[in-house]
Design a protein that fits this description.
This protein is of the alpha/beta class. 28% of the residues lie in helices and 25% in strands.
Length: 420
């Protein structure tokens, strides 16, 4: 049976960063990463790939380049966790014991949760930057006008702003191609607002009006018909308030039930439903009930498990009331590292606390971006130094340069190596 002082499940952003920072703090630590993939992806750039302004091949590199020196890479996948015995079951390596466990599995796509999506995904005019951004670009290039629908599920998703980022990029692309005047651009969301933080929502709402983008709130996608190019939404506000549905004549909406609406499309981009891996949601580490059901149960500040003190979780799989982004992980990692090192020495966590910071680089077109930074309770948390020079709540060319050039460089050369 394998045994490691610290076992990390997941070799994505959270797992690699945490291992790298732990090794920088204590090079003698016995650390193993359980991760089956041979490749590591920089997914934040997939928005740009889908808009034809970034090379997909530059978003993928060999995983072995980023496993920190001295860290054991177990090329396998987890199948079960038994925190009572401090063990993890793996696909081919059997049982692995640990003293401390870090759960950093990330989030997985679950297209089966949306009727018709598995059959339609990444085929024809149905596309998603979450699964195949190269296909998104092909759909955009082939689009000649009509109805372009952009939507997202009611489940949590990684980078909640990504579905609207590609919508802004696509709208700009249609203008550049001279087909905007014969195109309806629709953003349909199960949510009530375009963005949860007021300062950034103000800018985005202005963009919606200025660019004649049709915003549909309380639209929860429930069925996709890829062959007939139709999508069915449940209008959730009607259910809550008892309001009658009125069809939008501009879009030829068809009311097909007491709270459902069908829309035809000429292209559809969506984020698929997402959730925690099955072995996580079925484990004792996950919430059994409530709004966080299936996600890892941790203290929102210490990131320590509430019932198993030698277990920590960070990144997309942790039940934290903030956006699931790489920027959030950058702030979570030092907290986990400090708390585990304190646990090893004193059996109690340290003083570092995660306050919910996350960031969403909202690309609003070719050459413009809003940098939305916030923390728990949707409180704006913009960098005080940068904010003295630039209002990041407004569209900025400098932020576009940050997104396209600076952030990928920092990711590969600093973040994954534990240097920031």
């Amino acid at each position: 049976m394998r045994h490691h002082k610290i076992l990390i499940i997941g070799g994505g952003t959270a797992g690699i960063m945490t291992a790298a920072q732990l090794k920088r703090k204590d090079s003698e630590l016995d650390i193993a990463i359980l991760e089956p993939s041979e490749h590591h992806y920089y997914q934040p750039a997939w928005t740009l790939v889908g808009a034809g302004t970034y090379d997909y091949d530059k978003t993928v590199r060999k995983q072995e380049r980023y496993i920190p020196n001295g860290v054991k890479w177990i090329k396998d996948y987890a199948t079960a966790i038994n925190p009572d015995n401090n063990t993890v079951e793996s696909g081919t390596n059997g049982t692995i014991e640990y003293d401390y466990l870090i759960v950093a599995t990330g989030i997985v796509n679950k297209p089966e949760l949306l009727k018709g999506l598995p059959e339609a995904m990444d085929k024809g005019v149905v596309c998603s930057n979450y699964t195949d951004p190269k296909h998104t670009w092909e759909v955009l290039k082939n689009f000649k006008g009509g109805r372009a629908v952009f939507t997202q599920p009611a489940t949590p998703i990684k980078c909640g702003g990504a579905p609207q980022k590609i919508m802004y990029m696509a709208e700009h692309y249609f203008r550049k191609q001279g087909i905007r005047d014969k195109t309806d651009v629709i953003f349909a969301t199960p949510g009530s607002v375009i963005f949860g933080v007021k300062d950034f929502a103000k800018t985005l709402n202005h963009i919606l009006v200025e660019r004649d983008i049709i915003f549909k709130s309380f639209y929860k996608p429930i069925e996709i018909d890829g062959k007939n190019q139709e999508i069915v939404f449940e209008y959730t506000k009607a259910e809550e308030s008892g309001c009658a549905i009125q069809a939008d004549q501009r879009l030829d909406e068809e009311i097909v039930g007491s709270s459902t609406i069908r829309i035809k499309f000429d292209m559809l981009h969506l984020a698929p439903p997402q959730g925690p891996p099955d072995f996580i949601s079925s484990s004792k580490l996950a919430y059994e009930e409530g709004p966080s059901k299936g996600w890892v149960e941790v203290d929102v500040n210490s990131l320590q498990h509430k019932r198993y003190p030698n277990v920590f979780s960070l990144g997309d799989v942790a039940a934290l009331p903030t956006a699931k982004t790489g920027a959030a992980i950058r702030k979570q990692t030092p907290v986990v590292v400090d708390n585990i090192l304190h646990m090893i020495k004193t059996n109690v966590v340290g003083d570092l606390s995660y306050e919910g910071y996350s960031s969403c680089p909202l690309v609003t077109g070719y050459g413009s971006m809003v940098l939305a930074e916030f923390k728990y309770n949707n409180v704006r948390d913009s960098d005080p130094l940068i904010s003295r020079i630039i209002d990041t709540a407004k569209e900025q060319y400098s932020m576009w340069l940050l997104k396209k050039y600076a952030l990928p460089y920092l990711y590969w050369n600093f973040m994954l190596k534990g240097r920031m």
